[in-house]
Protein backbone atom coordinates (compact mmCIF):
# COMPACT_ATOMS: atom_id res chain seq x y z
CA UNK A 1 0.00 0.00 0.00
CA UNK A 2 1.13 3.51 -0.80
CA UNK A 3 2.45 5.75 2.01
CA UNK A 4 1.32 9.38 2.08
CA UNK A 5 3.96 11.82 3.30
CA UNK A 6 2.38 15.14 4.27
CA UNK A 7 4.59 18.20 4.41
CA UNK A 8 6.69 16.36 1.83
CA UNK A 9 8.84 19.35 0.96
CA UNK A 10 9.30 20.39 4.60
CA UNK A 11 12.39 19.93 6.72
CA UNK A 12 11.71 16.34 7.84
CA UNK A 13 9.15 15.30 5.23
CA UNK A 14 11.49 15.79 2.28
CA UNK A 15 14.19 13.69 3.94
CA UNK A 16 11.63 11.01 4.78
CA UNK A 17 10.61 10.78 1.13
CA UNK A 18 14.22 9.99 0.23
CA UNK A 19 14.45 7.36 2.99
CA UNK A 20 11.29 5.62 1.78
CA UNK A 21 12.34 5.74 -1.86
CA UNK A 22 15.72 4.27 -0.94
CA UNK A 23 13.88 1.40 0.75
CA UNK A 24 11.78 0.80 -2.37
CA UNK A 25 8.50 1.80 -0.73
CA UNK A 26 5.63 3.30 -2.78
CA UNK A 27 5.31 6.98 -1.82
CA UNK A 28 2.80 9.71 -2.49
CA UNK A 29 4.03 13.18 -1.52
CA UNK A 30 1.64 15.94 -0.52
CA UNK A 31 2.93 19.35 -1.56
CA UNK A 32 1.50 22.73 -2.53
CA UNK A 33 3.99 23.19 -5.37
CA UNK A 34 4.53 19.92 -7.28
CA UNK A 35 6.60 21.57 -10.02
CA UNK A 36 9.00 23.09 -7.51
CA UNK A 37 9.20 20.03 -5.27
CA UNK A 38 12.05 18.35 -7.20
CA UNK A 39 10.96 14.98 -5.87
CA UNK A 40 12.39 11.70 -7.18
CA UNK A 41 10.67 10.54 -10.39
CA UNK A 42 9.26 7.39 -8.78
CA UNK A 43 7.32 9.44 -6.23
CA UNK A 44 3.64 10.08 -6.90
CA UNK A 45 2.87 13.74 -6.25
CA UNK A 46 -0.42 15.00 -4.84
CA UNK A 47 -1.08 18.72 -4.88
CA UNK A 48 -2.40 19.87 -1.54
CA UNK A 49 -1.76 21.00 2.00
CA UNK A 50 -2.92 19.91 5.44
CA UNK A 51 -4.06 23.47 6.05
CA UNK A 52 -6.48 23.17 3.12
CA UNK A 53 -8.60 20.12 4.01
CA UNK A 54 -10.49 20.29 0.71
CA UNK A 55 -7.30 19.09 -0.99
CA UNK A 56 -6.98 15.95 1.16
CA UNK A 57 -9.68 13.50 -0.08
CA UNK A 58 -7.92 12.94 -3.40
CA UNK A 59 -4.50 12.65 -1.74
CA UNK A 60 -5.82 10.06 0.74
CA UNK A 61 -7.35 7.68 -1.81
CA UNK A 62 -5.82 4.20 -1.54
CA UNK A 63 -3.57 5.19 1.37
CA UNK A 64 -2.88 2.77 4.24
CA UNK A 65 -0.24 4.75 6.18
CA UNK A 66 0.22 8.50 6.66
CA UNK A 67 3.21 10.40 7.97
CA UNK A 68 1.53 13.40 9.57
CA UNK A 69 3.38 16.70 9.73
CA UNK A 70 2.33 18.81 12.73
CA UNK A 71 -0.53 21.22 12.06
CA UNK A 72 -2.96 21.45 14.96
CA UNK A 73 -5.36 23.91 13.34
CA UNK A 74 -6.79 21.36 10.88
CA UNK A 75 -6.00 18.04 12.55
CA UNK A 76 -9.69 17.32 13.18
CA UNK A 77 -10.38 17.70 9.47
CA UNK A 78 -7.48 15.39 8.64
CA UNK A 79 -8.69 12.74 11.09
CA UNK A 80 -12.24 12.76 9.69
CA UNK A 81 -11.09 12.55 6.08
CA UNK A 82 -8.45 9.90 6.79
CA UNK A 83 -11.00 7.69 8.55
CA UNK A 84 -13.37 8.06 5.61
CA UNK A 85 -10.56 7.11 3.22
CA UNK A 86 -9.74 3.93 5.18
CA UNK A 87 -6.33 4.99 6.50
CA UNK A 88 -5.09 2.47 9.07
CA UNK A 89 -1.77 3.82 10.41
CA UNK A 90 -0.69 7.35 11.28
CA UNK A 91 2.89 8.21 12.28
CA UNK A 92 2.91 11.67 13.83
CA UNK A 93 5.80 14.11 14.06
CA UNK A 94 5.16 15.51 17.52
CA UNK A 95 7.42 16.98 20.20
CA UNK A 96 8.98 16.09 23.51
CA UNK A 97 6.62 18.29 25.54
CA UNK A 98 3.40 16.81 24.14
CA UNK A 99 2.68 14.72 27.26
CA UNK A 100 2.31 17.61 29.69
CA UNK A 101 2.88 20.81 27.75
CA UNK A 102 3.80 24.05 29.51
CA UNK A 103 1.50 26.95 28.72
CA UNK A 104 2.58 28.90 25.61
CA UNK A 105 4.93 26.10 24.52
CA UNK A 106 4.89 24.30 21.17
CA UNK A 107 3.87 21.24 23.16
CA UNK A 108 0.30 22.54 23.38
CA UNK A 109 -0.20 22.09 19.63
CA UNK A 110 1.49 18.69 19.68
CA UNK A 111 -0.83 17.55 22.47
CA UNK A 112 -3.86 18.60 20.42
CA UNK A 113 -2.62 16.61 17.42
CA UNK A 114 -1.80 13.50 19.45
CA UNK A 115 -5.19 13.55 21.19
CA UNK A 116 -7.08 13.81 17.90
CA UNK A 117 -5.14 10.96 16.29
CA UNK A 118 -5.28 8.74 19.38
CA UNK A 119 -9.02 9.18 19.89
CA UNK A 120 -9.71 8.39 16.22
CA UNK A 121 -8.42 4.86 16.89
CA UNK A 122 -5.75 4.71 14.20
CA UNK A 123 -2.75 2.43 14.64
CA UNK A 124 -0.63 5.35 15.80
CA UNK A 125 3.00 6.07 16.63
CA UNK A 126 4.20 9.40 18.01
CA UNK A 127 7.72 10.67 17.30
CA UNK A 128 8.75 13.20 19.92
CA UNK A 129 12.04 14.96 19.15
CA UNK A 130 13.37 17.78 21.30
CA UNK A 131 15.58 20.59 20.00
CA UNK A 132 16.72 20.42 16.38
CA UNK A 133 20.35 21.02 15.45
CA UNK A 134 18.99 23.17 12.63
CA UNK A 135 17.70 25.64 15.23
CA UNK A 136 21.23 27.01 15.48
CA UNK A 137 20.98 28.20 11.89
CA UNK A 138 19.41 31.17 13.64
CA UNK A 139 22.99 32.18 14.41
CA UNK A 140 23.93 32.45 10.72
CA UNK A 141 23.50 36.20 10.36
CA UNK A 142 25.63 37.21 13.34
CA UNK A 143 28.29 34.59 12.58
CA UNK A 144 28.55 35.70 8.96
CA UNK A 145 28.67 39.39 9.85
CA UNK A 146 30.73 39.38 13.05
CA UNK A 147 31.82 35.81 13.91
CA UNK A 148 29.77 36.29 17.09
CA UNK A 149 26.88 34.44 18.74
CA UNK A 150 24.87 36.24 21.44
CA UNK A 151 22.92 33.92 23.74
CA UNK A 152 21.84 33.59 27.36
CA UNK A 153 22.50 30.45 29.41
CA UNK A 154 25.64 29.44 27.51
CA UNK A 155 26.10 26.34 29.66
CA UNK A 156 22.62 24.92 29.09
CA UNK A 157 23.23 21.31 28.02
CA UNK A 158 20.64 19.89 25.65
CA UNK A 159 20.51 16.94 23.24
CA UNK A 160 19.69 18.42 19.81
CA UNK A 161 18.90 16.02 16.98
CA UNK A 162 19.73 16.08 13.28
CA UNK A 163 16.68 16.20 10.98
CA UNK A 164 18.03 13.25 9.01
CA UNK A 165 17.91 11.09 12.13
CA UNK A 166 14.24 11.96 12.66
CA UNK A 167 13.52 10.98 9.06
CA UNK A 168 15.44 7.71 9.44
CA UNK A 169 13.43 6.80 12.54
CA UNK A 170 10.17 7.73 10.81
CA UNK A 171 11.02 5.50 7.85
CA UNK A 172 11.91 2.61 10.15
CA UNK A 173 8.66 2.97 12.09
CA UNK A 174 6.61 3.14 8.89
CA UNK A 175 8.26 0.16 7.23
CA UNK A 176 8.49 -2.24 10.17
CA UNK A 177 6.04 -3.70 12.66
CA UNK A 178 5.92 -3.40 16.43
CA UNK A 179 5.50 0.36 16.80
CA UNK A 180 1.75 0.76 17.28
CA UNK A 181 0.93 2.73 20.41
CA UNK A 182 4.57 3.74 20.97
CA UNK A 183 5.71 7.23 21.94
CA UNK A 184 9.36 7.58 20.92
CA UNK A 185 11.33 10.34 22.63
CA UNK A 186 14.06 11.26 20.15
CA UNK A 187 17.34 13.01 20.89
CA UNK A 188 20.80 13.49 19.50
CA UNK A 189 23.62 11.23 20.74
CA UNK A 190 25.10 13.70 23.24
CA UNK A 191 24.33 16.49 25.66
CA UNK A 192 26.06 19.64 24.44
CA UNK A 193 26.09 23.22 25.69
CA UNK A 194 25.59 26.32 23.56
CA UNK A 195 29.22 27.20 24.23
CA UNK A 196 30.31 23.82 22.86
CA UNK A 197 28.03 24.21 19.84
CA UNK A 198 29.66 27.53 19.00
CA UNK A 199 33.09 25.91 19.40
CA UNK A 200 32.03 23.15 16.98
CA UNK A 201 30.97 25.73 14.39
CA UNK A 202 34.25 27.58 14.92
CA UNK A 203 36.22 24.37 14.32
CA UNK A 204 34.18 23.58 11.20
CA UNK A 205 34.88 27.06 9.81
CA UNK A 206 38.54 27.07 10.82
CA UNK A 207 37.95 30.55 12.27
CA UNK A 208 37.22 31.80 15.75
CA UNK A 209 33.57 32.38 16.57
CA UNK A 210 32.99 34.13 19.90
CA UNK A 211 30.04 33.46 22.19
CA UNK A 212 28.94 36.59 24.04
CA UNK A 213 26.77 35.49 26.94
CA UNK A 214 23.72 37.68 27.52
CA UNK A 215 21.81 38.24 30.71
CA UNK A 216 18.23 37.05 30.71
CA UNK A 217 16.99 40.62 30.30
CA UNK A 218 19.36 41.22 27.39
CA UNK A 219 18.20 38.04 25.68
CA UNK A 220 14.55 39.00 26.21
CA UNK A 221 15.16 42.37 24.57
CA UNK A 222 17.10 40.81 21.68
CA UNK A 223 14.25 38.45 20.90
CA UNK A 224 11.60 41.14 21.35
CA UNK A 225 13.47 43.33 18.87
CA UNK A 226 13.43 40.38 16.46
CA UNK A 227 9.64 40.10 16.82
CA UNK A 228 9.44 37.02 19.03
CA UNK A 229 6.32 37.06 21.25
CA UNK A 230 7.22 37.69 24.88
CA UNK A 231 5.50 34.55 26.19
CA UNK A 232 7.48 32.32 23.81
CA UNK A 233 10.71 34.05 24.76
CA UNK A 234 9.98 33.43 28.44
CA UNK A 235 9.22 29.76 27.79
CA UNK A 236 12.48 29.33 25.87
CA UNK A 237 14.54 31.06 28.53
CA UNK A 238 12.89 29.01 31.27
CA UNK A 239 13.92 25.90 29.34
CA UNK A 240 17.52 27.05 28.98
CA UNK A 241 17.65 27.89 32.67
CA UNK A 242 16.36 24.41 33.51
CA UNK A 243 18.93 22.66 31.31
CA UNK A 244 21.71 24.74 32.86
CA UNK A 245 20.90 23.25 36.25
CA UNK A 246 19.65 19.88 34.94
CA UNK A 247 21.64 18.76 31.88
CA UNK A 248 19.60 16.74 29.40
CA UNK A 249 20.37 13.07 28.78
CA UNK A 250 20.37 11.34 25.37
CA UNK A 251 17.53 8.82 24.99
CA UNK A 252 19.39 6.40 22.69
CA UNK A 253 16.24 5.75 20.64
CA UNK A 254 17.80 6.66 17.28
CA UNK A 255 20.51 4.01 17.65
CA UNK A 256 18.06 1.50 19.13
CA UNK A 257 15.72 1.76 16.13
CA UNK A 258 18.10 2.43 13.24
CA UNK A 259 21.10 0.42 14.44
CA UNK A 260 23.51 3.35 14.08
CA UNK A 261 24.54 6.26 16.28
CA UNK A 262 22.82 9.53 15.66
CA UNK A 263 24.66 12.41 14.00
CA UNK A 264 26.71 14.41 16.50
CA UNK A 265 26.55 18.20 16.60
CA UNK A 266 30.16 18.38 15.46
CA UNK A 267 29.32 16.27 12.41
CA UNK A 268 26.32 18.49 11.74
CA UNK A 269 28.46 21.64 12.00
CA UNK A 270 30.97 20.26 9.51
CA UNK A 271 28.21 19.30 7.07
CA UNK A 272 26.60 22.75 7.35
CA UNK A 273 29.70 24.92 7.58
CA UNK A 274 28.93 26.61 4.26
CA UNK A 275 25.77 28.13 5.75
CA UNK A 276 27.89 30.06 8.29
CA UNK A 277 30.61 31.32 5.94
Helix content: 40-55%
List how many beta strands DSSP finds.
11
The quaternary state of the protein chains shown equals: single chain
Examine the secondary-structure arrangement and name the CATH architecture of the largest domain. Answer: 3-Layer(aba) Sandwich
The CATH superfamily of the largest domain is known as NAD(P)-binding Rossmann-like Domain
CATH topology of the largest domain: Rossmann fold
Question: Tell me about the biggest sheet?
Answer: 7 strands, parallel
| SS content category | alpha/beta
Report the C-alpha radius of gyration, rounded.
19 Å
The DSSP helix count reads 12
Shape: globular
The strands making up the biggest β-sheet line up spatially as 3-2-1-4-5-6-9
Binned strand content: 15-25%
Tally of individual domains: 2
CATH level 1 class label of the largest domain: Alpha Beta
Order of helices and strands: EHEEHEHEHEHEEHEEHEHHHHH
Can you walk me through this structure?
There is one protein chain. The chain has helices at 13-22, 56-60, 75-85, 107-119, 140-146, 163-175, 194-205, 216-225, 230-245, 253-258, 265-271, 273-276; strands at residues 2-5, 27-31, 44-47, 63-68, 89-93, 123-129, 148-152, 157-158, 182-186, 192-193, 210-214. With 277 residues, it is of the alpha/beta class. The chain has two domains: 2-129, NAD(P)-binding Rossmann-like Domain (Rossmann fold, 3-Layer(aba) Sandwich), CATH 3.40.50; 134-159 and 189-276, NAD(P)-binding Rossmann-like Domain (Rossmann fold), CATH 3.40.50.720. It has a seven-stranded parallel beta sheet with strand order 3-2-1-4-5-6-9, with helices on both faces. Strands 7-11 form a two-stranded parallel sheet. Strand 5, helix 4 (107-119) and strand 6 (123-129) form a beta-alpha-beta unit. Helix 1 crosses helix 6 and helix 7 (194-205) packs parallel to helix 11 (265-271).
Amino acid sequence: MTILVTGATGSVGRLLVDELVKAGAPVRALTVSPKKAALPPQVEVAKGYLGKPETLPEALKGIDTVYLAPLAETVDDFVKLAKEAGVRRVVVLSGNEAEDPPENSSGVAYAIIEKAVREADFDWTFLRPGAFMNNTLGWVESIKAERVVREAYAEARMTPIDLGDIAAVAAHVILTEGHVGKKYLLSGPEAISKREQVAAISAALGEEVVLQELTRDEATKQWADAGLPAEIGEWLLDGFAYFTENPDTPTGVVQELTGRPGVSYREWAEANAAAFR
